[in-house]
Amino acid sequence: MTKSSPGNQTFKKPLKAKQAATVLFAFVCSAAAICSPIGSLSAQSYTISASPRLLCTNSIRQRLAGSSQISDGQAPTDNSQHPNEQAPVDSSQSSDGQAPENSSQISDGQAPVDSSQSSNGQAPENSSQSPDGQAPENNDQNTDTQPSDSNHDQQTEQAPGKTDPAQDIEKTNHTVKVSASVSLAKDLTSAKVTWKKTGDGEVTSYLVQRSSSRDGSYKTIARLETGKSYTDGTVKGANRYYYQVAAKTKSSGIIYSKPCSFQCPVEPLPGVSLVRYSTSSIKVMWDKSQNKKAVWYKVYYAKSKSGKYKLAGVTKNNWYRVKGLKNNQNYYFGVKACTSKKTSTYDSALSKTAKMRTKPYERMTIFAGDSITTGLTAYRVLDEIAIGGRKNVVAAIGLNTITFRTKKVFHGKSAVESILAAKPYRVYIMLGDNDIHFRNKNDLIDGYQEIIRTIKAGTPATDIVILAASPVTAAEMSRRRGFAQIPAYNQALSVLAAEMGVKYYDCTGFLKDSTGWLKSSYNAGDGVHWKSAAYHEYAKRLTAYDKSLD
User: Is the model's pLDDT at 527 over the cut of 80?
Assistant: First the structure.
């Protein structure tokens, strides 16, 4: 390479890309050495890219630019620039492989200067060319400050007090936490979900979600913009539920709490009924069919409605007899439905209470029916039914499911009217043998239904027990074919009792032979009625059954 003049350099042949990069690097090093106050410059301040590109770092450009502004292409007066060479600046690769200046391509072999070359060879003040070809005035240049690395660096600088929106999103999501818990609500039948938000992020809404399993699918059951709790009144007794709360942040991110479990208490019984059993004992009863989840029932009583309730006992039955009560004292009774015999948080709330005042009382049990029932007095076995209290028989020869309601053979009253007048503690009814042999069993069921309905309406506290119809001998069944309906009739009575909420008792097994009809040893001679031996056995069985009820 030869020089034609101090300010004008030419090359013997065109330079290739790598050669051009090497030449430019030499110029940079020369200029840096001359301009540097200490006479030397570390080579680490320069980088030649594989493009090739010649990149100048801030420290290089600062040393080259100095403290004086270059104008009209003249060298600065502080002699920081060599008189015969132009200082290189940051440039990028041109399309023809030549090393261009920062914004203008080198086409005449001139060394690049600190700014983009204008069309007339003058160096513009600013590094960017204006749309009309004029160099824009650099209003921000200051000899006391360093120039920025590039326009891109200037664009990414943030105004004081402002942050990047992407950083806001990340900060919001990571500074919001939600914790949730669930407990039994004050109504003792609902689940109350509460939550707490921590962190400085903004939450726009909360989603309360529920699932039937911890790792199952959660369904949103409530959406709230404010608040810290939600009561779920749709839970069902003895079922387990899982809840989580999702906080929807301002950035549309969602933060979830950990799931929490809740088992709903058993649904409470609607109420109880009371029956006076004796002077010091009251029987509490309830309907088990209204709560399928309950296994145990805990009976409580108190001397005032708002007083402290004491546990009387625990049972699996639908009744419980509270004993040891004081005479002439008011008592309130209630029942809790439970899944466990031990006290648990899942026990239902106390049912609606019922009140009864104790007083001197002797219960009465009535045995009602036709001629078979009259045998209790005829064979004097009534006292053998050792159930306590008074016992009475309301029965007559020839009564059936119709005449039991209509025939007034008891001091001007029918059998049903006599029962209503006595208001017994319990009544046992056996009917059917007098009309099953000539009527359809369904007609007898209809008559029984009317009898039960009348008694329940007139004396609702009376406990009703339907007894199975007695078998007849096989010979009598052959003679009057209607008796063949007895097995099916008894089955229908069992269904009727369940439907009407009364009891059904079949103790006729001891009366039957191997064919299912009346044993000859118990046959009184007509194929229908019993011998005395049958009544004695009958009395034993009634005693055992009646005691099982109380």
Answer: yes
